[in-house]
């Protein structure tokens, strides 16, 4: 994780599909007070690809400095911005541009742009959709940050305390990763979170059991059944699981009963232990 560019790419593609703007582009921070444009849809010259935009300079730099959206309807004649990037912008023939900063916990993480090749005012609908795309991206990045922190805890558990306590932390991280994955809109990031949770589950397999290549096929649980069992495994009640996953308690109960049936288990904790033996939980 830790790479914002993949999430920016998804946001750029989604925004272009939603608005139909001739050009949508953006990038993540590439250093202190500067971002690099790395994701573009609708470009014709490549002049903006890789362009480094500094805070306070140009339209995107102004958005970074103010921490809010800014736009112009006739870029070459705009008097409210500096014109340090007139060359690359002019090469693409862009005239009406909106720039929206990506702000996560008061830190600028990048900028999203939408642009027209005509001197027209950016419609309220387009502006609202661009801002919403930025907000969705901010949410994804915030969740990704939480996942990074959880993975760091799992990779370097506290050396203090018994091994059992350290394994409880790994199990808590496993449940947290699965819960966070459900909040992510970027399919690539979601897949990476789920893959990380699967690796944690494999790491917790009983070393006395047969190697994975020699094990008979285990039960196949749905993603939601595994999400529920992950939280049950760390001692959560059905109501607590429901709050964590944004489900109704009755829905949690239904998923749990289905998982128990597939595992041929008779109690909640028996299901957890059977899932651990199958390498589904750490």
UniProtKB/TrEMBL annotation:
Domain of life: Bacteria
SUPFAM superfamilies given in the database record: C-terminal effector domain of the bipartite response regulators, GAF domain-like
Stretch list, region Disordered: 201-223
Keywords in alphabetical order: DNA-binding, Transcription, Transcription regulation
InterPro entries linked to this entry: GAF, GAF-like_dom_sf, Sig_transdc_resp-reg_C-effctor, Tscrpt_reg_LuxR_C, WH-like_DNA-bd_sf
Segments forming domain HTH luxR-type: 214-279
Protein name: LuxR C-terminal-related transcriptional regulator
Organism: Actinomadura rugatobispora
């Amino acid at each position: 994780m830790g790479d914002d560019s993949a999430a920016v790419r998804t946001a750029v593609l989604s925004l272009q599909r939603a608005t139909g703007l001739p050009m949508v582009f953006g990038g993540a921070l590439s250093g202190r007070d500067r971002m690099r444009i790395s994701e573009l849809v609708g470009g014709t010259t490549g002049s903006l690809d890789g362009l480094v935009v500094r805070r306070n300079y140009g339209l995107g730099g102004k958005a970074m400095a103010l921490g809010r959206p800014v736009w112009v309807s006739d870029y070459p004649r705009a008097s409210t911005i500096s014109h340090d990037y007139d060359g690359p912008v002019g090469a693409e023939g862009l005239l009406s541009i909106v720039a929206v900063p990506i702000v996560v916990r008061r830190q600028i993480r990048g900028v999203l742009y939408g642009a027209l090749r005509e001197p027209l005012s950016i419609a309220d609908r387009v502006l609202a959709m661009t801002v919403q795309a930025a907000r969705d991206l901010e949410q994804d990045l915030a969740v990704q940050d939480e996942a990074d922190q959880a993975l760091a805890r799992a990779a370097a558990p506290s050396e203090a305390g018994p091994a059992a306590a350290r394994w409880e932390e790994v199990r808590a991280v496993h449940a947290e990763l699965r819960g966070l994955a459900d909040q992510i809109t970027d399919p690539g990031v979601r897949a990476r979170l789920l893959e990380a949770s699967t690796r944690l589950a494999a790491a917790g397999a009983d070393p006395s059991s047969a190697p994975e290549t020699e094990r008979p096929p285990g039960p196949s649980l749905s993603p939601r059944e595994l999400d529920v069992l992950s939280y049950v495994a760390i001692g959560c009640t059905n109501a607590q699981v429901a709050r964590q996953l944004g489900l109704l308690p009755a829905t949690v109960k239904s998923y749990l009963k289905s998982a128990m049936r597939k595992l041929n288990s008779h109690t909640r904790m028996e299901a957890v232990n059977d899932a651990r033996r199958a390498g589904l939980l750490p």
